[in-house]
Amino acid sequence: MRIPAHSVCTAIRDDIVSGVFERGSRLTEEQLARRYGVSRVPVREALRTLESEGFVTTRRHVGACVAEPTEQEAADLLEVRLLLEPLGAARAAQRRTEAHLKVLRGLVRLGQERARRGQGEDLRSLGAWFHETLAQASGSPALTAPLTQLRHKIAWMYVVDQPASPAESWAEHGAIVDAVARGDAERARTLTALHAERTAAVHRLKRPERGQEKVRASQHAVNIASVRN
User: Fold this and answer.
1) Are 85 and 131 in contact (CB under 8 A)?
2) Residue 72, exposed/middle/buried by CB under 10 A (0-12, 13-18, 19+)?
3) Is the dihedral of CA 178, 182, 187, 192 positive or negative?
4) Structurally, how many domains does the chain consist of?
5) Are residues 147 and 196 both part of a single domain?
6) What are the pLDDT digits (tens) for 104-131?
7) Is the pLDDT of residue 26 over 60?
8) Does residue 126 lie within any of the structural domains?
9) Strands 158-160 and 63-66
10) Where are the alpha helices (H) located in the chain, listed in sequence order?
11) Which SUPFAM superfamilies match (predicted)?
C-alpha cells in the first residue's frame, strides 16, 4: 500500500514542530524515507509542501533544510492570528452545525473541569482542539487551512505558558461558544479578539540551542492506520 504524501508531510511537520529536527538541520530524502519507512517519492512531495508552508527551505549546494525563522517572522504570526481567529469565530456563528456546537460545548466542560483540577497539560491539548473545532465551524476552507498552519507554526516557534487564571481562560471559551450558538457574529468576533490578545501575552519564543543532536536516533514509521487505498 502506497503511503500518501500528506501522511508523510504530517509526520515530518510534527517532528519539526516537536524539535526532533532542529532549525537549520539538513533533511535528505534518503534519511527521511528510511525514518518513516516509505519511498523517496512521497518524501519529495512532502518536502515541497512543507517548503510552501515555511517549515522547510532549499539551500544551494545543500538541499532541503529546516527553516530558521526570524523573531520578526515569529511576531508576525501572532499578529496574523489576531486578525484571522476573530474572523473565523464570526463565520462560525453564521455557519456552525449542531455537531460543531456539541463538540465545542463538550470541550468547554472538560476544560473547566481540568482547570479546577490544575491539569495544565490536558488544558493545552484541549485548547488546541477547541480552536481547531472553532475554525472548522467557520465552514470556510480558505480560513481553516491558514488557521491550522498558523497553529502549527506558532507551536514550533513558541513556548506557551500556563495562563495565570486557567478558569478565566476557559470562561472566555465558554462565552465565545455562547455567542456562536446564538448566531451573534459580532460578539463572537469581539470575544475571540480579546481572548487572542490575552493569550498572546503567555507566548515565549523558543531559543534553540546549537550543538544538540540534530536527529534523534530512534526510528519510527508513519502511522498508516488511517490511510486508505
Assistant:
1) yes
2) exposed
3) positive
4) 2
5) yes
6) 999 999 999 999 887 766 788 899 999 9
7) yes
8) yes
9) unpaired
10) 5-18, 29-36, 40-53, 71-95, 98-117, 120-136, 141-157, 166-182, 185-200
11) GntR ligand-binding domain-like, Winged helix' DNA-binding domain
Longest dimension (CA), the chain: 57
The answer to whether residues 86 and 154 belong to one domain is: yes
Residues 179 and 89 in one domain: yes
Residue 160 C-alpha cell reads as: 506557551
Both 41 and 129 in a single domain? no
Cα distance from N-terminal residue to C-terminal residue, the chain:
7
Domain around 60: 5-66
Task: Compute the distance between CA of residue 112 and CA of residue 170 in angstroms, rounded to an integer.
Answer: 6
pTM of this structure: 0.81
* Structural domain ending residue among the three candidates 23, 38, 66: 66
Show contacts of 38-47: CB within 8 Å, 24+ apart: 38/3, 38/8, 38/222, 41/5, 42/2, 42/3, 42/4, 42/5, 42/7, 42/8, 43/5, 43/8, 43/12, 45/5, 45/8, 45/9, 46/5, 46/6, 46/8, 46/9, 46/12, 47/12
